[in-house]
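[job 4471] stage=fold_predict status=RUNNING
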Amino acid sequence: MAELLRTEKLRKYFGVVSAADDIDLHIDEGVLTSIIGPNGAGKTTFINLLTGNIFPDSGKIFFLNQEITRLPIHKRVKKGVCRSFQIMNIFPKLTVYENLQIPILSCLNRTLSFFKPATSHGDANEKVDQLIKEIGLIDKRDLSAGVLSHGDQRLLEIGLAMASEPKLLFLDEPTAGMNPVERVRILENIRRLSLEKQSTFVIVEHDMDIVFSLSDRIVVLHRGQVLADGTPEEIHKNEDVRKVYLGEEILWEKI
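[job 4471] inference complete, writing structure tokens
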């Protein structure tokens, strides 16, 4: 199995607080990985380090065996590392189609112009059509993004992140604020996209039902360190993980 990304002794301090403490971790192609941990475990800091939002105090990050430790965000995106955020990042007054057309044209080093019809971008429009089908919004392509349900807006945001055709895509709490029906739908779409190998997904989540139903692999962070790393079955049985979560029974069912 091909290794996409790895870290070596990755460390980040905020004052005297260790948010990442000598983290050695690898992410393999095609393995849907979830990163979990209690509040303050270092999950967001770790993702910020991997995606270039912040730089480590020490340690190294490699993507496809090339060091990217100090590479800025836009250059990581060009290499194939992308992310979505907890806060919605869409253009509410534009249609679903237009939302996706903008990043795809950007990747092709083009822009929309008042003096050139949008339909003239033949190759780009084919990519937009394909992406809309992949994220399951083909029947809503001409609706303004602002009128979509919260779940569909999340799907659109995933589409925006996928527009650059990333090899590795980080999703930060993709089901936050969703009702049960929306949550099931987006989980099914993420699982399908993962199985189709469109991108390799890494998810940061608090909802254990989501984590255990969706993941191939689970990484548990605690106080900036990797507490456990394994399959859902292995994490479910891990006594150290149970202690971190105050002995709560973790139930799961694979979808």
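[job 4471] summary: The first strand starts at residue 3 and ends at 14.
[job 4471] exit 0
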